[in-house]
Amino acid sequence: xxxxxxxxxxxxxxxxxxxxxxxxxxxxxxxxxxxxxxxxxxxxxxxxxxxxxxxxxxxxxxxxxxxxxxxxxxxxxxxxxxxxxxxxxxxxxxxxxxxxxxxxxxxxxxxxxxxxxxxxxxxxxxxxxxxxxxxxxxxxxxxxxxxxxxxxxxxxxxxxxxxxxxxxxxxxxxxxxxxxxxxxxxxxxxxxxxxxxxxxxxxxxxxxxxxxxxxxxxxxxxxxxxxxx
Length: 229
Ligand SMILES: Cc1cc2nc3c(=O)[nH]c(=O)nc-3n(C[C@H](O)[C@H](O)[C@H](O)COP(=O)(O)O)c2cc1C
Fold this sequence. Notes:
Largest sheet: 4 strands, antiparallel
Helix content: 25-40%
Strand content: 5-15%
CATH architecture: 3-Layer(aba) Sandwich
Bound molecules: flavin mononucleotide
CATH class: Alpha Beta
CATH superfamily: NADH Oxidase
Number of strands: 4
Order of helices and strands: HHEHHHEHEHEH
CATH topology: NADH Oxidase
Structural class: alpha+beta
Oligomer: single chain
Shape: globular
C-alpha cells in the first residue's frame, strides 16, 4: 500500500469502475461534448488522433439498440467481431482473471452458471447500453497499425476519467464489435471504418447490485520490474 497522498486525479482514477445499470436521466449534450473534447487531449503517435466517435441518444440510440438486440436474440451465431478479443487458445494468467470477473459478476446478481436464459438477458443489457441515456460507438480506420490502438486506449481512459470527474459513469464495451454488420448499416459507416467498441455513459443507478462489482488488481510487484543497475 502506497504512503503517497492521493492527488485529485488519483482520486478520480480510483473511483472509476465499470457501471452496468443507469438511471434514465439524460446527460446534457454540452457535457458529452466536453468529455469528448477532454478525451481528445490524449497523446497519439505523431498526433494522428485515430478516434472517430458516434454519439447516440434518443431515437438514434433506440433504433440501434433495437436492431442489435433483435440480432442478439435471433441470430447471434451470425455475428462475429472484426478483431479477436480473447486469446485463442486461452492461457494463464489471463484465463483465470477473465473467469473471476465473470463469476463475481454473475454471483453478485444471483445468476447461476447454467441459467442460460438469465445469462442471455444479462448479456443483452450490453446492447441496451445497460439502460444509459447515451452511448458511443467508436471506430478506427482499418488501415491504421497497432500503434494507433495504443492511442485509442489513452483516449478511452481520458473520456472515462473526465466523465467521472463530472459525476458521470461509463462502461467500455468491446461486445458491440460483434454486431459491426448491423452497426455499419444503422450508422451508414464507410467500409474503411472498423467498429472497435461501444461505451455506455450516464448516471449510475446506485442501488443496482451489479454496480457493486469490485474488481481487484495485481500488486505493482507482480507486473513491474525495477532496474537500476
Ligand atoms: C477494451 C475493453 C472492453 C470491455 N468490454 C466490456 C463489455 O463488452 N461488456 C462489459 O460489461 N464490460 C466490458 N469491459 C469492462 C471490463 O470488464 C472492466 O473494465 C474490468 O472488469 C475491470 O473492472 P472496472 O472497469 O470496474 O475497473 C471492457 C473493458 C475494456 C477495457
